[in-house]
Write a structure and sequence with these properties.
The chain is of the alpha+beta class. The protein contains ten helices and ten strands. It is globular. Bound molecules: flavin-adenine dinucleotide.
Length: 398
């Protein structure tokens, strides 16, 4: 799509990366996505291709073997990939968040140990806050780590781990009870090494099978059960007990820009499909695009695609400039995911009955878009974050 979702001021390197990724999406992802999704098949060839392009190390600093690119570059790459198939962006997203957290908060040893192997995709990251009884209310985490000599013993059940089976490093937020008054100050992030696969993958660490989902198929989402699993104390992120909540929230903040970018990618694709179909399908003697009701839908969809893209780019640039972007990332995620649900719905309506057929790509997008309303914090949670931030900023001085 030449006209929509353009980004001003990109460097030559950014343009080159995006052009390479776009070609990869058109040739290697789009032609296979729907069949792989319907079969719920892990896209191994596509993942191998992404490894070859260096995408697992896109934002990892060059000193650790990565490409050292910005959050903006990453978000624009994700937008392209999600235009092809959202699940593929899911494969790199948790990895990206964990690499970011290690780079920002890890000890020098942790950075040396993980980042070079994360840059090549040899180590693949997942991250885990949610549990069966909680998602939005992170501070209520129950999974517990108890100190025992120079190890910690972890017990509890985590839920909804994207890449839970295919990753070999999981950043897990658990309760360590530091005696702090605020519940969130009693949480600690552990870097848990584990083999890939399902079942009891390590003593006291069980990854039951893949959760059967409505969409977002191909990529694995799992539970993770800890039954007395022992982790060395040196695996605490940054060596800082009680700092886990803040570390995770920092990771989720960049994750929210990524979710906004995914929503933009799906919306772009839904628009492309709708504008093409509207010119092919005729009713009452003319293409449906010439009925004003359909043309206006296209105009509204394109406007939403453009608005979401600009807010996503703004949030990424703010973080890249070294500023906190909680409000802007929340706004971008809220707007892009809500618009994405609306744009896919309109593209579906334009397809008439064919939109309900599994032969048409829009059917897949209709099942993918709702996840974006939930993942990395629901729309209600984004509104909480945005309003809190604004009230801090606009506090009345009496
Ligand atoms: C496919 C998939 C992949 C995921 N991957 C991961 C992952 O890799 N790692 C991870 O840690 N988690 C992951 N999650 C979990 C996800 O982050 C949570 O599902 C999400 O944060 C919502 O939490 P919940 O499901 O417990 O809903 P709840 O928190 O129970 O919320 C239920 C409803 O109540 C509303 N609500 C809750 N609290 C409030 C409030 N204070 N004010 C107003 N409304 C409120 C919510 O908006 C929602 O509508 C994944 C989820 C899915 C579906």
């Amino acid at each position: 799509m030449a006209r929509l979702a353009q980004t001003a001021g990109l460097t030559e390197i950014q343009q080159e990366i995006l052009s390479t990724v776009r070609t990869f999406v058109d040739k290697e992802i789009l032609p296979h996505a729907t069949a792989l999704e319907h079969a719920d098949t892990y896209p191994q060839d596509i993942v191998d291709g992404m490894k070859e392009m260096g995408l697992f190390g896109l934002t990892i600093p060059e000193e650790y073997g990565g490409l050292g690119e910005s959050l903006l570059t990453y978000a624009l790459v994700v937008e392209q990939i999600a235009r092809g198939w959202m699940s593929v962006s899911g494969v790199i997203n948790t990895h990206f968040i964990v690499a970011y957290m290690i780079n920002q908060h890890g000890t020098p040893e942790q950075k040396q140990r993980y980042l070079p192997r994360m840059a090549t995709g040899e180590v693949r990251g997942s991250f885990s806050m949610s549990e069966p009884d909680l998602g939005s209310d992170v501070a209520a985490i129950k999974t517990k780590a108890v100190s025992d000599g120079d190890e910690f013993v972890i017990d509890g059940t985590k839920m909804w781990l994207t890449n839970g089976g295919t990753s070999n490093l999981t950043a897990v937020l658990v309760r360590t009870d530091e005696g702090a008054a605020k519940p969130y100050q009693n949480l600690t992030t552990f870097l848990v090494d584990k083999p890939t696969g399902y079942g009891e993958v390590a003593p006291g660490l069980i990854v039951p099978g893949k959760i059967d989902k409505m969409g977002y198929k191909g990529v694995d989402t799992t539970e993770m059960v800890f039954k007395g699993h022992r982790v060395p104390a040196g695996q605490i992120l940054g060596g800082k007990r009680g700092a886990g909540f803040a570390q995770m929230m920092d990771g989720v903040e960049v994750g929210r820009v990524n979710v906004a970018a995914r929503a933009c990618g799906i919306s772009i694709r839904a628009f492309e499909l709708a504008v093409e179909y509207a010119q092919q399908r005729s009713t009452f003697g003319k293409p449906i695009a010439e009925h004003q009701a359909v043309a206006f839908k296209l105009a509204e969809m394109a406007t939403k695609v453009e608005a979401a893209h600009l807010m996503m780019v703004n949030a990424a640039r703010l973080k890249d400039s070294g500023n906190r972007n909680d409000v802007e990332a929340g706004m971008a995620k809220l707007l892009a995911s809500e618009y994405c649900a609306e744009v896919t719905q309109e593209a579906f309506r334009i397809h008439g009955g064919y939109g309900y057929s599994k032969e048409y790509e829009i059917e897949r997008l209709m099942r993918e878009a709702p996840f974006l309303l939930i993942g990395e914090g629901t729309s209600e949670i984004q509104k909480t974050i945005i309003s809190r931030g604004l009230l801090r900023e606009y506090r009345q001085r009496t």
